[in-house]
């Protein structure tokens, strides 16, 4: 397990790719929804960063908090700017799918 996990989310409209699953950073309420980095060419369960996130959630669910690295959350409000949002405590992991423009189903965390 890494010493820390770093999640970086783009604000709407500045992503370099067409991403139908937008991250939600509700900093005031302390809630985020972060979609992993899977692509049609890189399945969610093979992508190394997604495996690290899954491992952190599995450790948290098993009550092994000492095994869960701190999760640092950042946002990119505009190109070239990164802001620290806070620390994240994992509490829910699910696999959801979206479809690419060509109709390919892409599951992702």
From TrEMBL:
Originating species: Halococcus hamelinensis 100A6
Pfam families, A to Z: RE_AspBHI_N (PF18062)
InterPro entries on file: RE_AspBHI_N (IPR041409)
All residue ranges annotated as the Restriction endonuclease AspBHI N-terminal domain in the record: 3-96
Domain of life, per lineage: Archaea
The protein's name in its UniProt record: Restriction endonuclease AspBHI N-terminal domain-containing protein
